[in-house]
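hey so u asked for the seq, here:
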Amino acid sequence: MALIGGLIAVFVYAKLFPRQDRIITATVNQPISLANFPTGMDMANLNFVVAAQKSVEAVVHVKTESTQESYNPLLEFFYGDQYRSMQPVVGFGSGVIISDDGYIVTNNHVIEGSDKVFVTLNDKREFEAKLIGRDPSTDLALLKIKGESFHFLNWGDSDSLQVGEWVLAVGNPFNLTSSVSAGIVSAKGKNIGIIQDQYRMESFIQTDAAVNRGNSGGALVDMRGNLVGVTSAIISPSGGYAGISFAIPVGIVKKVVADLIEYGVVQRAILGVSIQDITAELAKEKNLDKMEGVYITDVRPDGAAMAAGIKAGDIILSINDMKVNSSGELQEQVSRYRPNDKVTVMLKRDGKVKQIEVILRNLQGKTSYITPDSSNDILGAKFGDISDADKSKLGISNGIKVVELKTGKLRAEGVKEGFIITQVNNKPIYSVDDLDKIIKNTNGGVYIEGIYPNGIIHYYAFGLK
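ran it, structure tokens below
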């Protein structure tokens, strides 16, 4: 009876209280889209095909050929220079076509010291490339190949690129044809001290996209297939990919490319300040109320900042309304301008925000543009100053140092990097301007006297024609 009564109760309850599905539904009036992805992309089949297809045809393989002096120190000690020989050296990397008429951007370290540069497209066509110019300070170089209607990448916007956004690294790792790897933007404005130049300019995009040997000079693209950076470096204890790679922001690349095409040399503008990132320790030491901006530790006497009234201890908050919170970000913003350009600097002084107009100057403290140095072109070298300590150590009072060699007279005569030129044609050399004047006014031979860092004095002689 109890069982029958229970069945009857269940039947009656089911009739009186029908079951209701506990599913909440909502009507969406607007289409859903994901941030940072191309409009119209099928979200049911989300992938990187669009960006990859645009990129692989515009990324090229770069091969360099050069010669390197080879010698046996023991044989040379006993028998002289006749045991020296020149050995061929081949290097490789990547490049990105940025115009339909064949301009290609790559890394300076890919083509540095090369005698010839060859470019292979993704369709296997090969061209010998002409070096238009290079900029060791940003590790960029510009090449040109003959032809037209080349596949190329459009400029993207590295400013709007966000941490966490998907990107693709496209290049030629391990001497292979164009390959694609994906990752996200891990950080921006990174200064890692990897560029070996006195006036280095670093504000890297950090990603976790796989980059290996041969990827240098390749493309970092967004999901629309637009160029947002040029891959440049990895940090790895083993030399292989270890999860961290770096790319030069396209905002810097565009400026360097434009200058090299128009002037043959980068028109670099500087504020004329020494800067430091604001850390917790610095904020406590200087009694700063906020961890923002970039701290000025010193102001150059003949620089743009001093002329505008900027002082040591000021904190730069923005350049032309672009906020800066690291030395890399500040350098990146200033690098986009040329000497004599006017920028608005927002800074904080004694807790109060000020706005100052600054007319930028070049490395020589002037507002004029610079021209390619003729002695650099003829001699095939880049020169730098000598510290007072080195002068004292070597017992010299003047000279300029050969800091970089490429194809030219000095390299052909066996001059090595580090050589200090003290006299040319029996005239003392105190600056690059001194050397340039002598080269311009010399029609015949050049006689160079100098000293190496180990104290050995050496002489070189050659003709300019």
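The longest helix spans residues 2-16. DSSP finds twelve helices and 24 strands in the chain.
lmk if thats what u needed
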